[in-house]
Amino acid sequence: MPETIEENETIVPEKPRPRYDRSIVEGPLGPAVWKIAWPTMLTNVIAGLQGIVDHIVVGNVVGFKANAAIGVSWQIFLVVIVFISSLFTGMSILVARFAGAGQELKVDRTVYQAFLTAIIISFGVMAPVGYFASPYLLDLVNAEAGVKAEALPYLRITFVFSLGLLVFFMLSGALRSAGDARTPMILGVVMTVLNLVLNIILIPGLGPIPAFGTAGAAMGTSIASGVVAIYALYRLIAGGWVVSFPKGLGYKPDWAIIRQIFRFGLPTGIQGIAMNIGGVFMLAFIGSLAQSAAAQAAFAVGYTQLFSLITWTSVGLMGAAAAVAGQNLGAGNPERAANAVHTAAKFGIAGSAFIGLFFFFFPEQLLGFFGMKEQAVIEIGTQLLQVLSISGIFISAALTYTGGLQGTGDTKSPLYISIISQVIIPLGICFIIQQTWGLEPLHIWLAILAGHFVRFALSYYKFRQGRWQSIEVSIDRTEA
Prior knowledge:
Helix content is 77%, strand content 0%. The chain has 15 helices and no strands. The model is unreliable at 1-15 (pLDDT under 50).
């Protein structure tokens, strides 16, 4: 018998489902942090594994100079890519605040303006400047002739076809800040798998496809990221994700929003430049060693690849800390925002300590996966990994507190901290030792450790001060 509605009953319409996940600002804190953290950590680990596979393939197909070439090229490219992608920190701060306050239109407007900024910078700056400046940048890091020959085509391809990576970084930050960390995880997995397949084909060659060697690694990354970027653009226009492009507001730049993106993102971009310029000069110190090629290869594999198992998971926790803290501050819960960052730091310390055990006790086995059989490379790489087993604990905690500061709008403090801890201290130590006793690889590794410890101490102190709680975020216009 069909149900009937009595005359005195009132029909209560169903409430629309909230667009944003409210568990981030309500309920248990640990699961809220972990919900954002684990997909991002997994994405970064998989991306790190892709780089590891690149090094394994080129190391066994081309030789250890190809490992050095990719490591040197990537360090140079990071100086630029980190600056550009760090501008999206400004976008992420706005998105998290507006999502926490439930302001959907402001979220979408912010994402679209960040996308426009990425296109202009990629095609107008990175492609032309990067192509012509690559030879001079490789000279700056003292890349020897054999390493430079392998690195130049890799670096040029990476610069010219950088838009795909920029769009992926922008979209990942936007989705994560709005509370959806699973979609960028899926996109990241797809991009990494596609990249792996392409690199396994393009580096050694397959059938009628010639062996591109080191350049094949750059080609695979560019194609894979470009495919993902095209799909992302389609979904942002069509809708269905937690963020999308706004409809009916035109396609012109909105300078009110772009100013805010640069206001919060520019200090982070400068921070990224400072850190990676520090990395470039560190490579110059490594290049000045008696066994420069062996040390550069050990650094490329040990620091830029194996250590990424710690840094990329920590960067995932940094993103989670930023998103959860930013949303809770937008929802008016500063105490919950602070506790979220402390929770993320505990996750990071535990994870880095676990990975560090393998670095300390099994360094030769780890290096062996990359085809590193020369005795000099093994000895230098073992020293590096054992130092990094301790250094990883400090950098993991430091990154989560950096995320807490940046996610709540304080992007200037991490800038100053990074200049002190990642540039002045390690480079200063290397310079003094070089001018006095004579620089050895172990001195450089210990200088890196000192910088990571100072970064942790200063970041923790600054976050505990709590001045981030009073930072205001606005795009200076009312919603249409």
